[in-house]
Amino acid sequence: EKFFKKIASLLGKELDLKQEDVFQKLLEREKLSSTVVKKGIAIPHIVVEGENISKVMLVRAGSGIIFPGDKLCHVIFVIVGSADKRSLHLKELAAIAQVTQNPDFEEKWAAAKNEEELKHVVLLSERARY
C-alpha cells in the first residue's frame, strides 16, 4: 500500500487527479487480479476519470516492492489512462509485455545508469510495432 500511495501522490499531482481516487483504483485493480506478469516484473494499470489522460511511469525498485502474494518486484510499469485513451492503453500494455519478455531485458534494466537509459531500454527494445 505504501508504494501505491506514493505513486498515487505523484500521478495525482502530475495529471491533476484526486490522489485518493488513483490510490483506490490501484488497490482495486490489484485485488481483481495480480499485475505481476512474471517474476520480478509488475504492470499495474488503471483507467481514470477525465479525458486525454495517458501516462506510463517506469519504476526501478532496487530493494523491491512486495506485491500481493509476497511477490517481490524490482521492475514496475504503472499505466494510467482515461477511457477515451483505451486503445493506446492496451497498446502500451502489449508493448511492455513484449519488451519484458526479451531475454536480456532485466540485465539491461539493471545496468541502466539513469532515467534516460531506462527509457532507452524500453523504447529501443525489439518488439512488434502497433
SSE string, helix = H, strand = E? HHEEEEEHHH
Beta content comes to: 25-35%
The CATH class turns out to be: Alpha Beta
Q: What is the molecular shape?
A: globular
Number of domains: 1
Task: Indicate the percent of residues in helices.
Answer: 40-55%
Give the end-to-end Cα distance, rounded to a whole number of Å.
33 Å
CATH superfamily assignment? Mannitol-specific EII, Chain A
Tell me the number of strands: 5
What structural class do the secondary elements suggest? alpha/beta
Q: In oligomeric terms, what are we looking at?
A: single chain
- Biggest sheet character: 5 strands, mixed
The radius of gyration over CA amounts to: 14 Å
What is the architecture at the second tier of CATH? 3-Layer(aba) Sandwich
Tally of individual helices? 5
Unreliable segments of 5+ consecutive residues:
none
What is the third-level CATH name, the topology? Mannitol-specific EII, Chain A
Mean pLDDT: 93
TL;DR of this structure?
This protein is α/β, with parallel strands linked by helices and 130 residues long. Helices cover 46% and strands 27% of the residues. Strands 1, 2, 3, 4 and 5 form a five-stranded mixed sheet that branches.
Task: Characterise the protein shown here.
The chain is α/β, with parallel strands linked by helices. The protein has a single domain, classed as Mannitol-specific EII, Chain A, CATH 3.40.930. Helices cover 46% and strands 27% of the residues. Strand 4 and strand 5 (71-82) form a beta hairpin. It is globular, with a radius of gyration of 14 Å. The relative contact order is 0.15. The model has no long low-confidence stretch (mean pLDDT 93).
